[in-house]
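Example (one chain per record):
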Amino acid sequence: GNIGCIVNGAGLAMATMDIIKLHGGAPANFLDVGGGASEEQVTEAFKLLASDKNVKAIFVNIFGGIMRCDVMAAGIIKAAAEVEIRIPMIVRLKGTREVEAKQLLNSSGLRLIPEDDLDEAAKKAVQTAKIVALADQIDVGVRFEIPL
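Predicted structure:
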């Protein structure tokens, strides 16, 4: 597969992989950050995904119950500062401290693809991964101009 998934919880991981498949994509893997991940653990998850040459898009799908969305957002920001992530990132954060998380990401200057709806987020992950994979096949780079 070519879509790396960062999720919290095995059930959400399975649902995320299923919806990616439903829309014609192929999950490369999933990293379950669990309910109590720290910023450092989130950063390590991004490092792992960014090092996989098969991953063409990263789909972050967090349902914040125990896992706070603002901690996830802070981890994404920290990962972007520490790791040169050139892979397009689709981010869906729902639940505990969601508003604060979205404010953090919006003010971070990161160019990511936010999406609240799971179905739409999965479609965007699949289509984005396809674009990057097609560009790789003809040995050209692709750069996404994502408005802030």
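Caption: The first strand starts at residue 3 and ends at 7.
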